[in-house]
Specification:
This protein is mainly beta and 316 residues long. The chain is 14% helix and 42% strand. The protein is globular.
Length: 316
C-alpha cells in the first residue's frame, strides 16, 4: 500500500494548510516595501477534504476528511499554530484506514526558536509522537535541534533553515516583490530531524473574486453564497487579491514505520521528482485558500468552508 497522509500537510498543508510557512533566505534580504507588505494575520480556518482523483492501481475509492488550523500571536510574543487533519481512506479491496494528525508549534518572530509536537493516529490508535525544539543564539548560525520523542537525539539544522511562520512571511514577501520562484529549506518538526527542499512557483497576482450577483444566479452560484453566509470571514477573504502558488516537496522517502518505499517513491528519488505537491491560493494577508494535495497515486482537494480572522496580539 502506498504512503497515506498522516502528517500535517506539509500534512503536507501544506505549510500552507496545516500550519503556516516556508523559504530559504534571511527575511532581512527582503526590500522594505515587500517586508512591510508581507504582514500575516492571526486566523482560524476549516477545510473539507475529498478525493479529487486516484490511480487505478491504488484501489482508493473515497477519502473524505477535515482539516482545521489556527494561527495566533504576533511579533512580540511569537506565533502559535495548531492544526488537526483527519482523512478516511476507503479502498476497493483493503480495510478502511482512518488517519489523523495533530500538530502544535510555537515560533519566535525572528525565527531563532521553534517548538513542535506532532501526534499521528491510525484507526483511532496512536502510532507516533514527535516532539522537538530548535534554537540558535543569533542569525546566521546553525540550529541545535533537540528531539525528546519518539527517541532522544540531537542534530544540527543548516543556518538557512526556515520554520513555518518565517517561511510564510518570506513567501508572501516574495509574492509582493513579483518573484516567480523560490528554493526553500523548510523544517516542520518531523522525526527525520532534517529540513526538506521545497521549490515554490508563484503565479501572477490575481484580482479579487467578483461577488455573485443577486439577479439571474444559477443554482451553483446560489449554493456558493449560502455556504459563504455560514463561512464567517470567507466572503471578506475572497474580496482580496491572491497569488496561485505551487509547492513541490523534495526530501527523504524512507517510510516512517521503517518499511520499504514504494517503486514510485524510489523512482521519484532517482529522477529528482517531488514526493508530493501542494497547489493553493495565497491571499494578501497570508491566509491559504482552496488547495490541491498531489501525491504519486492520488490527489486530495481541500475546500475552505469557514474562516475567522483574529485580533493580532499587542506588544506590552
Amino acid at each position: 500500500m502506498r504512503k497515506l497522509v498522516t502528517g500535517g500537510v506539509g500534512a503536507a498543508l501544506l505549510f500552507a494548510l496545516a500550519g503556516p510557512g516556508m523559504t530559504a533566505a534571511p527575511l532581512a534580504e527582503s526590500s522594505t516595501h515587500a517586508h512591510a507588505a508581507a504582514r500575516i494575520v492571526p486566523y482560524e480556518i476549516a477545510y473539507d477534504i475529498s478525493l479529487r482523483r486516484a490511480e487505478e492501481r491504488s484501489g482508493l475509492l473515497m477519502a473524505p476528511g477535515r482539516l482545521t488550523s489556527r494561527l495566533e500571536g504576533g511579533p512580540c510574543e511569537g506565533w502559535s499554530s495548531t492544526s488537526r487533519m483527519t482523512v478516511r481512506f476507503v479502498f476497493r479491496r483493503e480495510a478502511v484506514r482512518e488517519t489523523e494528525s495533530r500538530v502544535a508549534s510555537w515560533e519566535s518572530d525572528d525565527g531563532n526558536r521553534f517548538y513542535s509536537r506532532i501526534e499521528r493516529y491510525l484507526n483511532g490508535l496512536p502510532v507516533e509522537t514527535v516532539r522537538v525544539k530548535a534554537s540558535r543564539e543569533k542569525d546566521g548560525r546553525p540550529y541545535r535541534l533537540e528531539m525528546t520523542e519518539p527517541q532522544r537525539r540531537t542534530a544540527q539544522l543548516p543556518p538557512q533553515t526556515l520554520f513555518p511562520t518565517a517561511a510564510l512571511k518570506k513567501l508572501l514577501a516574495a509574492a509582493h516583490r513579483g518573484d516567480r520562484q523560490l528554493t526553500l529549506l523548510l523544517y516542520e518538526g518531523d522525526e527525520e530531524a532534517a529540513p526538506q527542499h521545497v521549490v515554490a512557483l508563484i503565479g501572477r497576482k490575481r484580482s479579487p473574486i467578483a461577488p455573485a450577483k443577486d439577479a439571474g444566479e444559477d443554482a451553483v452560484g446560489t449554493h456558493d453564497r449560502m455556504r459563504e453566509r455560514d463561512g464567517g470571514d470567507l466572503p471578506r477573504l475572497r474580496q482580496m487579491a491572491y497569488w496561485p502558488v505551487s509547492l513541490a516537496y523534495y526530501g527523504v522517502t524512507v517510510r516512517r514505520d521503517g518499511s520499504k518505499a514504494s517503486d514510485r517513491e524510489e523512482e521519484a528519488a532517482r529522477f529528482g521528482l517531488p514526493e508530493y505537491e501542494v497547489h493553493f491560493r495565497l491571499y494578501e494577508n497570508g491566509v491559504t485558500g482552496d488547495a490541491l494535495l498531489i501525491y504519486p497515486d492520488y490527489v486530495l482537494e481541500a475546500k475552505a468552508t469557514k474562516l475567522r480572522l483574529l485580533e493580532p496580539a499587542t506588544c506590552k
